[in-house]
Design a protein that fits this description.
Blueprint: E1 6-7, E2 13-14, E3 19-23, H1 47-58, E4 62-67, H2 71-81, E5 85-88, H3 98-111, E6 119-122, H4 128-132, E7 136-140, H5 144-152, E8 156-158
Parallel strand pairs: 3-4, 3-6, 4-5, 6-7, 7-8
Antiparallel strand pairs: 1-2
C-alpha cells in the first residue's frame, strides 16, 4: 500500500503538498543514539515531537524520518511509526550535516513539493542544513547555534527532550 497517496471521493490520488522532516536521534527520540532502541520505544519518545509527527500525518503531510543510522537500525522505529519516507545513511553515503539538507531538497524536488510550505524538526547545529531547506524550521531543545538562528528568524521551538530512566 502506498502511504503517500490519499484517495479523494472521485478516486483520483491526492499527492501531499507539504512535507514534515523529523530528525530521529535527540529530536523524535529522547535518546542521542539508537543504542538499545530494539526494546520498548514508549519511554524513548519525545512527546511534543511525536505529537507534531502525528499532527502532520493527520493533515496528510508527507512524514519523513531523517537519521545518520542505517535502515536496519531504524527498523523498529519505522515499523512503529510507518513514515512515508526515510532518509538514512547508506554505505559511503552518510546522512549527516549538509547531506541531510541535500537529501531533503532532492526528495522535495522528486515529489514536486515546495520547500517553503514544509517543516523540519531538529535538535543540534549539525542539523542546520536540514532546517535551512524548509519554510517552517522547528528547533527542538537548547542548542545555542540553532537558538541564534531561531531568534533571527521566525523559527518555532519545542522544549528539549527529557531522557526518562527505568
Amino acid at each position: 500500500m502506498d502511504t503517500t497517496r490519499r484517495i479523494r471521493p472521485d478516486d483520483r490520488p491526492l499527492r501531499p503538498t507539504v512535507a514534515a522532516f523529523f530528525d530521529v536521534e535527540g529530536t523524535l527520540l529522547a535518546a542521542p543514539d539508537l543504542a538499545g532502541v530494539a526494546g520498548p520505544l514508549g519511554r524513548l519518545w519525545h512527546p511534543p515531537v511525536l505529537a507534531a509527527l502525528h499532527g502532520h500525518a493527520a493533515l496528510g503531510h508527507l512524514v519523513v524520518l531523517v537519521s545518520p543510522a542505517s535502515a536496519a537500525e531504524l527498523e523498529p522505529i519505522v515499523r512503529h511509526l510507518a513514515p512515508d519516507a526515510v532518509l538514512c545513511s547508506r554505505p559511503r553515503a552518510p546522512m549527516i550535516g549538509q547531506g541531510k539538507g541535500y537529501a531533503a531538497r532532492a526528495l522535495l524536488r522528486e515529489r514536486g513539493i515546495l520547500a517553503a510550505r514544509c517543516y523540519a524538526y531538529a535538535d543540534e547545529a549539525a542539523d542546520l542544513p536540514l532546517l535551512a531547506e524548509v519554510g517552517h524550521p522547528v528547533v527542538v531543545g537548547d542548542d545555542p547555534v540553532l537558538l541564534r538562528h531561531a531568534r533571527r528568524g521566525t523559527w518555532d521551538r519545542l522544549p528539549a527532550a527529557e531522557v526518562r530512566r527505568r
